[in-house]
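User: I'm new to structure prediction. If I give you an amino acid sequence, what do you actually give back? Let's try with this one:
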Amino acid sequence: MNKHITKLILTGILFSVPILSNAQITERVRPKEWDNLVEGARFIDRFLPMKGNVLSSDTWGVDGVVPRYVDNGIEDRIWSYWGGNIKKGEDGKYHLFVCGWLESSPKGHAEWPNSMVFNAVSDNLTGPFKLRNMIGKGHNPEVYQLKDGRYVLYVIDGRYVTDDINGRWDYGTFYFNPRDRRIIEGLSNLSFAQREDGSYVMVCRGGGIWISEDGLSEYNQITDKRVYPPVQGQFEDTVIWRDHIQYHMIVNDWLGRIAFYLRSKDGINWVVDPGEAYTPGIAVHENGLVEDWFKFERIKIYQDEYGRAIQANFAVIDTLKPLDKPFDNHSSKNIGIPLNPGLLLSIPDDKPINSRTKSIRVKIHAEEGINPHTDIDISSLRFGASEEVNFGRGCTAVKTEHDGDDLIVIFDAKGSGITEEEFAPKMIGRYINGKMLYGYARLPYIDYIEPILSARAPVFTESEEGWSVSMEIQNFGQVESKRSSVKIEYKKDGKLTELVSGNVPVLQPYGKTNLHFNCKDIFEKDEEYEFLITIYSGKKYYRLST
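Assistant: Good question. You get back a string of structure tokens that encode the predicted 3D arrangement of the chain. For your 546 residues, that looks like this:
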């Protein structure tokens, strides 16, 4: 069994839970330090009031969700809808790819394995969506677009492909190469994010990370260790996306009905941010009406031209799933909730920020609906590492400068918390009207696109000349690697001893090499050995233990 070592930075995330029961809900105990988070620290703080115009009591559901605005998302009395995300087509319409089953099905909600996938359309991002065509069988869909313009519609155990969003979709399957690594909890409920070169990073339900060179060809597993928070939870409903700053991920503990939010520079190594990403209770309208759905699952994200998340879509149900029976008053639907996208921020100066830095200049960019000169309460701003700013600490603003329509805010660098590991410092504050603002910035001196060297398990061969070992190393990064070195060690009596070492040649993106070494005879019959492979590339290193 292989174990790929990845870096995971935790920020006050460990907590205990009560003993789980067979019910579909349990209460998770939050860490005490979460009490000190300020508004804007949690992803849940980004949810905005829902939109809708048609308020109706003539619909299904428990009292907590009736009356409601039935023109948000998609619902009717014929189908029980589940999952799905939105793409804007060349026709100017918003296309929701959603699955569903007949509400009258004898199994009720348990009919979901026989779901059909639909293309539903609307003139508005929040709906109402109306069915346009049935694509075929499938559950938990997620649609994404390839570099060549084709659309890929993932469903559990397969995918559909088309070059016309309103046309025919051809069914096929993905090929997954685990690369000698353990697949965590199987390959279902996948989510995909496009990288800068058109390749794709994918996260599976178990929290393993995979990469495909074009998004449709072979997906290769990079890790076999979940990147989720190391807490007790029943994880699924993962969604991943990339904006112009960083990668984002949300994963839901469906039993505890609490989701977690993570960030990453490269889509491989993840930072867990504190606080809830979402919980029941987020479906609130401007007039105060609350849609009290029992469960919020299968979150999907709609992004703007910068990649910022501007709407979250959820599958929601009004009761416990086993209680949703045919011809009853229960069902499920898809809803859309707007999100605060955050400010557009940049750092004009390319000099590294360190303990000697006196001040930090941050540019707040003007955009439609935001005038940074008049709309922002400068005295409320805090800037720095998330682990500082999320708790109300970080740098304070000392003065401002005009830069055309944009505004440059100069912060006293003291207390920024920015270290060599930081890749996306954060700003939190308020607008003049008292509403929360936040944003992330890239550090101009950081390489955001780097080689990603990954080894497969070594293969040992015995011959008359003795033992030899071969090993495949591949570059899953989007840029050429540098000349590197590799070392294979073995563990004996709790001690690591070097077996062989050598050089790794320069590898182009997605290029691979097979290394061969002669090694000393250390093996004893019927003994098991543990090996550690380390690839060194400058200050970076990559490890695989077998």
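You can read the tokens as a compact description of the fold. Here is one thing that stands out. Helices lie at 386-389.
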